[in-house]
Amino acid sequence: MISRTLALYKNAYSGLSPSTWWLSFVMLVNRSGTMVLPFMTIYLTSPSMGYSIGQAGFVMALFGLGAVTGAFLGGKLTDRIGFYPVQLITLLGGGVLFMVLGQMKSFPLICLFTYLLSLVNEAFRPANSTAIVAYSKDETRTRSYALNRLAINLGWAVGSAIGGFLASISYELLFWVDGATNITAALLLAYFLHPSKQVKPAKKATVADPSHSAYRDKIYLWFILLTVLFAACFFQLFTNLNAYYKIELHFNERFIGLIGALNGVMIAVIEMVLIFKLEKRRSNIFYISRGVFLVGIAYFMLNIFHINHVMALLMMVVMTMGEMFALPFMNSFWTSRSADHNRGQYAGLYTIAWSVAQTAGPFLAAQLAEHSGFNVLWWVLGGTSFATAIGFIWLKRYMENVSS
């Protein structure tokens, strides 16, 4: 039994190119410095800064606006100059801007450099997504994205833990360390992933017209709309759900942290093996729709059951299973719609979808919770997730009708 399990894990991680591993390591280093964003609101409202919650909210809205702008520009630049220089420039530029932002004290300058930092940081994502395609084979693509997600989740956990320690000493340290990890990631990228190592993937037969545009691809635009709806629901996992645990259920911070850690541990232990067993057996949309359904079920559980500590953990298990079914195959879907010359455009639009959801979803959900209560919010999120899952099933049938 143990030998079979070990063999399964070995097979799940085998076959990935060295460049894919290095790219994920670069992402791990980069994300291990993710500590400014989680503490930004606390920093701005601290006695040393003295800004109001409303002003902090405005700064975070600018962060969201910068993310959308950066995703668009990053996609355009990736198609024009290539994913390698865009990654290098944005990592270096983001590192410098983190350090500069930490020195800003006046509100207008904080707003300006927050927007610029977010723009540069998010321009990295389409280039990074395109690089994963270039460094992976078609049969290992979904697992390559899963490995990248694993690096992101581990990095986020490390960054949050270190960030909490540094914030207790000085908030300014967060900006220096976040900037330093960006620059370190850029140096690792330059050393281990030189442009000469780029591998051009084969053209995909799924794209009939090589001159097509992401903005004229009706199937892809429907996919993006459904992605925004799903992501807006999913992002409550990191925002209003924690507030509900604290305000309504009176869970302490340690247990809330444990619930979040369960999500990361499950992804680290299960996702690569799950993708290895499922990849190429059914269509990407098939797995996406099932994952979105599971997320809806998780939200409904909050109203159907009495949520104690055990049920909160069980809800997170269902939510994380939905995440592991949906997100890796969403990445595989958008890559299947793109070609070499416009992959940055497709990646940019996909990144924009998540940036819009990250900005609007938690804000709108918070307003609904404040005016109608958390129970109404969970019904709405569960219902929206179910409707989105049905939308993905419809999209699959629509694609089948178009291709027949």
Automatic annotation (TrEMBL):
What keyword terms does UniProt attach to this protein? Answer: Cell membrane, Membrane, Transmembrane, Transmembrane helix, Transport
> Which CDD domains does the entry link to?
MFS_MdtH_MDR_like (cd17329)
Which residue ranges does the record assign to the Major facilitator superfamily (MFS) profile domain? 1-400
How this chain sits in the membrane, per its record, is: Multi-pass membrane protein
Where are the membrane-spanning stretches? 21-44, 56-74, 81-101, 107-124, 145-167, 173-193, 219-238, 258-278, 285-305, 311-334, 346-364, 376-395
List cellular component terms (GO): plasma membrane
Places the protein is found: Cell membrane
Q: Which GO terms describe its molecular function?
A: transmembrane transporter activity
Q: Does the record carry Protein biosynthesis as a key word?
A: no
Coarse class of the protein's main subcellular location: membrane
PANTHER family assigned? MULTIDRUG RESISTANCE PROTEIN MDTH (PTHR23517:SF2), RESISTANCE PROTEIN MDTM, PUTATIVE-RELATED-RELATED (PTHR23517)
Name of the molecule in the record: MFS transporter
Q: Which organism is it from?
A: Niastella caeni
